[in-house]
């Protein structure tokens, strides 16, 4: 079963606006990761947050993690048309670093 | 950064034939590789985990005789879809985890293979 569940499923915004995507999961984790996928391509790792961390930044990305609520959010600030892609959260809870991916959020940034 | 090359990018084949997809780590050794299947506008479904030099571990519901995985070296894993049928048409993606501890928590993905079975 899918561990991560993102919402919204789809998000359409204007260039320059911020985009927020949320992810919920069900079991305990070692870390939570966010990936990006352009249409018809592989995934690219964006950011990793460990279970003992609450917030992390990387460029225009900000990730938060609330282990008590089993949820995470990804904020993309000052969005660009090139940010248009699907974004997936993935949880790592096991010893083989096997990631379980959520259903993803399709972000469309309109120029 | 680490690069994973997946080949071919797309393949069209006739029903009943077998198709091999290659996944190579170009600049690192991958002790573990993962194979996923993705349907349009859906998430990635893990098919199997392959460890170099040992048998692959398949997820529940994935037919090991249908999807043959070989990970004979630290830089190459292959997925062979045997006797392909139209329902096997999908986007297949591989990922690899580097062997060193410093970077082995995140995965590096190939660009995917779109398989169409006629």
What labels would you give this structure?
A: 111 residues, mainly beta, 11 strands, B: 118 residues, 4-stranded antiparallel beta sheet, 0% helix, 53% strand, globular
- Helical run tally of chain A: 0
The amount of beta strand of chain B, in percent, is over 45%
Could you tell me the mean pLDDT of chain A? Answer: 90
Number of strands of chain A: 11
Instruction: Using the CA coordinates, give the radius of gyration of chain A.
Output: 13 Å
Number of strands of chain B: 11
Low-confidence stretches of chain A: none
- Biggest chain contact: A-B, 23 and 24 residues
Q: Distance between termini of chain A? A: 36 Å
Q: Assign the structural class of chain B, choosing from mainly alpha, mainly beta, alpha/beta, alpha+beta, or little secondary structure.
A: mainly beta
Number of helical regions of chain B: 0
Order of helices and strands of chain B: EEEEEEEEEEE
Tell me which oligomeric state these chains represent. Answer: heterodimer
- Give the class of chain A from helix and strand content and strand pairing: mainly beta
* Anisotropy-based shape of chain B: globular
What's this entry about, in short?
The complex is a heterodimer of chains A (111) and B (118). By secondary structure, chain A is mostly beta strands. Chain A contains no helices and eleven strands.
